[in-house]
Amino acid sequence: MGRKQAIITGSLPGSPGSLVELIKPISNNGGNIFSILHYHDKKINNMIPVTVMFEVNQKLLEVSIKKIEKELNEKNIKIESITVGTENRHITVILTGHVFDTDVLDTIDRLAIKKIKVSELHARFTENDDISTVKLNLEFPESMTKSDLLKEIDDICQEKNLFLIRS
Is the pTM of this model over 0.85? Predict the structure, then answer.
């Protein structure tokens, strides 16, 4: 059997070591972590929102998720949701314009909030005043239509005055 994707969203205390305490139960129960989004800039009452994306063996999925959830609860890490079993689809887009001047990391974070993962980024670096070209290989969940995905990217591009080339 294969591996299934799982996503944990929650919040943890803004103290040293909290993130390690979040990822240990995932790793200890067969999870292969491939993305962690830790939003320090969105801290409320010393709690930092976090999203962890990982894969787990499909055969052990149910047991692993229950053990992970139990261990996180024991550590008083607030879990808002655990999404399991989404299959991702892929698309490649190219952004042109002042991609870096308009904060490419912000673009990636905004896509991640919508469960769109940047699996690869290829960039052609230019002079600061020149236009940049960035190729993004994206993974998006089965629950999202391709048009919804493109609308999300299009909205960001319009706001940042970027040009979107779609595959």
Answer: no
